[in-house]
Specification:
The chain is an alpha+beta fold. The protein folds into two domains: 203 residues, no CATH class; 262 residues, Rossmann fold, CATH 3.40.50. Helices cover 18% and strands 31% of the residues. The chain contains nine helices and 24 strands. Strands 7, 8, 9, 10, 11, 12, 13, 14, 15 and 16 form a ten-stranded mixed β-sheet that branches. Strands 17-18-20-19-21-22-23-24 form an eight-stranded mixed β-sheet, sandwiched between helices. The protein has a four-stranded antiparallel β-sheet with strand order 3-4-5-6, with no helix packed on it. It starts with 5 loop residues before the first strand and ends in a 7-residue tail after the last helix.
Length: 488
């Protein structure tokens, strides 16, 4: 996959006698099977840039003389990720600015912030810039694109209290290492965003129109904020997560009561938990549930070795980690050990089923458009992921026995906890037949189950009515199996 091994090539482009473009002298300048490269981009001076994980972290690199000797130089080395899995096109983690500096989104310890890289000092680490969205520092930055001015860039940022918002960051003049940062915010969000550099300067923001209306927000007193935690996996390693505690203004539980826990597993399985305001998370915390968003080994944001930890081990390592996260939070007294459920979508759905088949930690779980049969996925999925499992599980069909052993659909005789299965009727990534096979097996073994198929939905739910119905069905399911009552 692109996040495993990538080659970066450069070629000349010319017009032939008929005016048709032709490619001339293509040659590889960087990359290989053990190096992932993302975001190649030319700057205004003609230098070629990219983010490479050759150091173990996706960091910025400059290709010197890309049309000739092509020497690759690291710029702004840091133990953080300036890059990520390229699941779709158009992802941009950094922007070369007109004044020569680079503004980048860097992820460390699961959170993403903005940093400034100065190419004139390639060995110097990036300088962080704190940008606040709502009343909290930005913890997720999704896109970075050069702006209209030589010191400007547009970014999409979110925080623990505000969803994704389009902002215009202006680094201004002054020292290249400690330039003052001005921040342009949407008109209706004026006063909700601010910026400062590491020297603590906070100039007045410039105001520009918003690209979109701001997302709906809860009362600030009811917003649960993410608390990062690290936990032992039981085999000498660690994994990470975000804990959201129950929170609703004017409401509190008994002093001696611990809340039920919803363990959430992301998809990918190379994705990551995002420490940002999300109404789906707040849906649970405002109803008395704690939420643990788990970054099992194999997640993005912790360097290449951590990300590659799932190679050949998907369906095992991720299951160990989500179970260990639940046990850890129960052991430290944060949640009720008898009222823990697990939910996950796509790749996370397979982790849910595998965990329910191999552990008694969870009282039940929800599988959203989840993978259930690895052999079926290997032979019936879209082109982009057609050989993905060769890395995560093993070469197909040579490792067919491993595929069979890891597939939850073949182990449902071990399933004792109730399951809720939610799937899109038009899913082409994980065909509905996989969900139907799980439902049939659950019925065959006498396991409590519910199944809902949503017309017009593919891999992931997009329609508002579907999202509402799915969440309400899930809430009712948990209240029943955890014996919480209608207002639990």
């Amino acid at each position: 996959m692109p996040w495993d091994g990538t080659e970066l090539w450069v070629a000349g482009l010319a017009l032939d006698g008929d005016g048709r473009p032709t490619v001339r002298v293509p040659h590889r300048v960087a990359g290989g099977s053990d190096e992932a490269i993302v975001g190649p981009e030319w700057d205004a001076s003609g230098d070629l840039w990219c983010a490479s994980d050759r150091s173990g972290w996706w960091n910025l690199h400059r290709v010197i003389d890309p049309r000739g000797e092509a020497r690759v130089e690291p710029v702004g080395p840091v133990a953080a990720e300036i890059g990520g899995p390229r699941w779709v096109g158009g992802l941009r983690w950094y922007a070369p600015l007109g004044d020569g500096r680079i503004l980048a989104a860097a992820t460390a310890s699961g959170a993403t912030g903005l940093v400034v890289v100065d190419p004139t000092e390639p060995a110097a680490p990036p300088v962080p810039i704190t940008v606040s969205v709502g009343d909290a520092p930005a913890s997720v930055v999704g896109q970075v694109v050069a702006g209209p001015g030589p010191t400007q860039a547009a970014v999409v940022a979110a925080s623990a209290t505000a969803g994704p918002t389009v902002l215009l960051v202006d680094l201004g003049g002054g020292s290249r290492r400690r330039g003052r940062a001005r921040l342009a915010v949407p008109l209706e969000r004026a006063g909700d965003a601010s910026a400062s550099t590491s020297d603590g300067s906070t100039p007045a923001p410039t105001v520009v129109p918003a690209a979109e209306a701001p997302p709906a927000r809860l009362d600030a007193a009811s917003v649960a904020r993410p608390e990062p935690f690290t936990f032992p996996t039981g085999d000498g390693e660690v994994a990470h997560g975000l804990l959201y505690r129950p929170r609703l203004a004017g409401v509190s539980g008994p002093d001696d009561a611990r809340p039920p826990l919803v363990v959430t597993i992301h998809g990918g399985p190379t994705s990551a938990a995002r420490p940002m305001f999300d109404l789906r998370t707040q849906f649970w915390t405002t109803r008395g549930f704690a939420v643990a968003d788990v970054d099992h080994r194999g997640s993005t944001g912790y360097g290449r070795p951590f990300r590659r930890r799932l190679d050949g081990a998907w369906g095992e390592v991720d299951v160990v980690d989500c179970t260990a996260a639940a046990r850890h939070l129960a052991a430290v007294g944060d949640v009720d050990p008898d009222r823990i459920v697990i939910r996950g979508g796509s790749a996370g759905g397979m982790t849910v089923l595998s965990a329910l088949c191999s552990s008694d930690v969870f009282a039940g779980g929800t599988v959203l458009y989840g993978v259930t049969d690895l052999a079926a996925l290997a032979t019936d999925t879209h082109k982009f992921e057609s050989r993905y499992l060769d890395t995560l599980v093993g070469p197909w069909p040579e490792a067919a026995d491993v595929y069979a052993a890891r597939s939850p659909v073949n182990r449902l005789d071990r399933l004792a906890a109730p399951i809720l299965v939610l799937h899109g009727a038009d899913d082409r990534v994980v065909p509905p037949a996989q969900a139907e096979a799980v439902v049939a097996a659950a019925a065959r073994y006498g396991v409590r189950h519910e199944y809902r198929s949503f017309a017009g939905e593919g891999h992931g739910f997009r329609q508002a009515a579907t999202i509402v119905e799915a969440l309400e069905a899930e809430l009712t399911f948990y209240r029943e199996i955890l014996d919480l009552g209608a207002s639990g």
